[in-house]
Design a protein that fits this description.
single chain, 9 helices, 206 residues, 2% strand, 64% helix, mainly alpha, two-stranded antiparallel sheet
Length: 206
């Protein structure tokens, strides 16, 4: 059963709804061609090295395999909860901002999620904080001050806008560096934009 999430509330565990939405984009087992290119298998957005590390940390059982993640959603949830949700401190952010933040932590890395948070804080604050990708007490304190002033809706709108700008900037730089691969980068940008638009739609309806 999916819990009804409350706007403005922080959740100390990864909400099931967040997981389901992320998995809509992370997909299933990678193709044989992709496995050969990367050198490992990926399933549900979780790589074999990530699964191995999760086993070593005791996050999931040693019996879990990359193939079993197709149906073992509880193990998938545990890995995302520890590696992205809690590691990024998404549990300290209010819904639905926490989802937008968690989604980019999965898609772009925990550090990127924090950088965008810090940039968003500075877009509203007269006392800028360091944009260093580290979520510490200064970032949390500055966030709480800004959110009390501007509200969740305005903050998450700016957060999503900065995410879109990051995607565009990365794509433009990639094409400039490797123009022969322009079609690939534009296709990737299209997928990123679709994912972002879905996040925007969700955060706006909450």
């Amino acid at each position: 059963m999916i819990e009804l999430l409350i706007k403005g509330k922080c959740y100390n565990k990864l909400p099931v709804e967040y997981l389901h939405r992320v998995l809509n984009y992370e997909g299933g087992m990678t193709s044989a061609k992709m496995q050969k290119m990367e050198g490992f298998k990926t399933n549900r957005g979780i790589t074999e090295p990530a699964l191995s590390a999760a086993k070593q940390k005791g996050i999931v059982s040693n019996s879990v395999t990359i193939e079993s993640l197709t149906t073992d959603l509880e193990s998938v949830r545990k890995i995302y909860e520890v590696n992205e949700y809690l590691e990024s401190n998404a549990d300290k952010l209010p819904h639905p901002l926490a989802f937008a933040y968690f989604d980019i932590a999965v898609n772009g890395g925990v550090g990127r999620a924090v950088l965008l948070l810090q940039e968003t804080i500075n877009s509203f604050s007269t006392k800028p904080i360091a944009v260093d990708g580290g979520f510490g007490p200064n970032t949390l304190s500055a966030f709480n001050s800004v959110i009390a002033k501007v509200g969740i809706d305005k903050f998450v709108n700016n957060y999503n806008a900065l995410r879109g700008a990051f995607y565009k900037n990365l794509t433009d730089k990639s094409i400039a560096k490797k123009p022969d691969e322009k079609d690939y980068y534009n296709t990737r940008m299209k997928a990123w934009t679709s994912r972002l638009n879905s996040t925007i739609k969700y955060t706006e309806m909450c």
